[in-house]
Amino acid sequence: MLTSSNDNCRDLMKRRANLRLCRFSVVAVLGLLAAACTTNSGTVASDQAMASDTLDSDAEAEEIGESVELGLQWVEHAAEYRALTRQAYGVATRALPELIADHSWSAMPEQQDAGSLPPAVILDVDETVVSNVGFQLSLKPPFANWKLDEWARNSEATPIEGAREFVEAARALGVSVFFVTNRPCEPRPGISDPCPQRQTTIDDIEEVGIPTDAAHVLLSEERGWTREKLSRRLYIAQNYRVIMLIGDDYGDFVPCTRKKVAAPCTQPGTRASRAAALEKYRDYWGQGWYILPNPMHGSWTTVE
Ligand SMILES: [Mg+2]
Q: Is 8 inside any structural domain?
């Protein structure tokens, strides 16, 4: 066991040496690694891990901590990660016929009497359909939306395994597929389009093999929307029976989970409120709600 542990530490050190984001001195990195290996801490992303709430807020962004780098490595290399995303999408795919047929069903607790509406599913984008682990690995902190925007424009999108197959299965059964992302609309110098990120997002989704269009991709800061996704879910629910929600962040499912209050929420999310919601919506997880792992960033990193 000791040998195995040392081997793991050596492997980890070797991989970390290759990380472009390493900004610490070799001595400091080796010191941190030695401490991590000595204490054998299993914390992938501890409370001390100052991961940025990457796609939610520049203001909330903080430096990525050492322990989060292990999360990056896990997403980048672990077959376990890929198995989990396949698992989530596999479960969702198999549930499609039942949830389509049950006209009394909606995956939105706020939606009532939607039986006459056509079915739709709502997917998040980043770490749900496309992987940004390459961005995370190359990121020089602090996070900024323009950095992700620039990276997305200049990089071929990497798929999250299982997403394309799920979307194809849903569409084959007559289900509309919407993408609700917290990539914000921000002007780019020299471009008149007030939301050039919309086309970049559409391009990213299409690069992983999923055709879509502007009518099915909803960004934050459009039409008075905020980073709180509830408003966009309710917008879609005006014309569709939402049978599934799929995402990697609590906010992809549960309203008002963020530390930073955004309309229509009036209270910040806290660890306690999120725990209460876990219980309140217990029957949805795995039955209409399918959550994907993300140890790299998310709204969970900022709540207290
Ligand atoms: Mg996401």
A: no
